[in-house]
TrEMBL record:
Protein name: TSN36 protein
Topology term for the membrane: Multi-pass membrane protein
Chain segments annotated as transmembrane: 27-55, 61-85
GO cellular component: plasma membrane
Gene3D superfamilies: Tetraspanin
Signal peptide region: none
Amino acid sequence: AAAGLSYVGAYVINTYKSYDNFLQDKYALLPAVIIICVAVVMFIIGLIGCCATFHESRVGLGLFLAIILVIFIAEVSAFVLGFVYREKVKTDVQGTMRSVFEKYDGKNPESTVVDYLQEQLHCCGVKNYSDWTTTQWFNSTGNNSVPQSCCQQEAKNCTGHLDHPQEL
């Protein structure tokens, strides 16, 4: 289990590099770091449990049980806090995404990240393609279209024009 968590934490940190412009908050990597720390702690606890079982130590097994109970309480607390603050996180992420979309010009690094995100997640805008109509890029181009990264992969001749929303 510790190895699996370590892999997940490392994967999240590696994936973060693709989306770091959307997650400008310095605490965005905190969950991945916590996952890796939990993996290390799990490994140590597992080692204590194995040693206590091998030596048939009542004290060691009691310590192992106490640690497992503390971990269970921490997991329940984390679940409750995640449930309580889910709307705040959603609002913060959407606000950050909107600010990155405002910087879109088709050339800068933020634009590359926006295009990559839309292509990988098969989406367009923060909520939908109409989010683009309020951006500076949309108003400056004057061609009534969204970036081509909004186009569905199956749409062969998609130009991003809003007259054909079924292609987006």
